């Protein structure tokens, strides 16, 4: 009896010893076919890429999804759906999508955007920036009204007060006509052309017509265009540089390809 019990115990230990690695490699066995742990890991990575945290509850849901996928796949295989031309075409497209995504990810891993790259791009943009202008305007509906305002300003009327009383632009009018700091390209061409010709403190001597009406413009100040601090725009710069490099990578591959 003791020898029999010893043999049973030995066989049990051997069975458990063989089962442990199998359980580590697979999350389940469905109809005799293993569902590998790697499949669950792939689902977890998909969730993580979307920005969702993968906690124990999510992991359990994904495990059940992996098992259901295997059940459905087995039924699809049993029905011979894999041999369908439509399915084959869709599988080919899906394979291409996955491989292309991984190709681009691999390219980014091989050529990462460094802090030095980001600082160089920041400095390049800063150097290329032009002037910013701080101007005020009074917008009215007719040339005669604009001329009357210019005449009043010539007699000593305060620009800010006239803007509050007479301007048709409710946004700036309430602030005395102040348009804050802006580059010329932020305004319609007629406005910009007149504004950039002014010296600090000068008012347009004639009304300026634009699609919005008639403007009387005063230039308060100018300065070199300002960029936000480097750390504030660093994530945006990184995204832009990554996209730029991926576009260059794609263009280079296309240029080298022999297409007949």
TrEMBL record:
The record's annotation in PROSITE patterns points to: PPIC_PPIASE_2
> What EC number(s) are associated with this protein in UniProt?
5.2.1.8
Keywords recorded for this protein, A-Z:
Isomerase, Rotamase, Signal
Signal sequence annotation: 1-24
EC category: isomerase
Q: Which stretches make up the PpiC domain?
A: 130-221
A GO molecular function annotation here is: peptidyl-prolyl cis-trans isomerase activity
Is Isomerase found in the keyword set? yes
Q: Which domain of life is it from?
A: Bacteria
Reaction catalysed? [protein]-peptidylproline (omega=180) = [protein]-peptidylproline (omega=0)
Q: Which family does it belong to?
A: Belongs to the PpiC/parvulin rotamase family.
- Protein name listed in UniProt: peptidylprolyl isomerase
Q: Which organism is it from?
A: Tepidimonas taiwanensis
């Amino acid at each position: 009896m003791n020898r029999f019990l010893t043999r049973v115990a030995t066989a049990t230990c051997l069975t458990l010893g063989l089962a442990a690695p199998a359980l580590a490699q697979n999350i389940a066995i469905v109809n005799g076919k293993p569902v590998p742990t790697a499949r669950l890991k792939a689902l977890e990575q998909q969730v993580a890429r979307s920005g969702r945290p993968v906690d124990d509850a999510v992991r359990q849901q994904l495990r059940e999804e992996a098992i259901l996928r295997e059940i459905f796949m087995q039924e699809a295989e049993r029905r011979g759906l894999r041999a369908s031309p439509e399915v084959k075409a869709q599988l080919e497209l899906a394979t291409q999508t996955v491989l292309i995504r991984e190709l681009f990810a691999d390219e980014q891993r091989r050529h990462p955007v460094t802090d030095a790259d980001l600082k160089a791009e920041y400095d390049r943009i800063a150097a290329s920036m032009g002037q910013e202008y701080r101007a005020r305007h009074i917008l009215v509906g007719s040339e005669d009204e604009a001329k009357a305002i210019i005449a009043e300003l010539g007699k000593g009327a305060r620009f800010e007060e006239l803007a509050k009383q007479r301007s048709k632009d409710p946004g700036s009018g309430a602030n005395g006509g102040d348009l804050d700091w802006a580059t010329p390209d932020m305004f319609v061409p007629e406005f910009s052309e007149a504004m950039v010709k002014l010296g600090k403190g000068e008012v347009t001597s004639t009304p300026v017509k634009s699609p919005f009406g008639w403007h009387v413009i005063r230039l308060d100040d100018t300065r070199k265009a300002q960029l936000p601090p480097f750390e504030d725009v660093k994530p945006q710069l990184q995204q832009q540089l990554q996209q730029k490099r991926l576009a260059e990578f794609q263009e280079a591959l296309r240029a080298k390809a022999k297409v007949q």
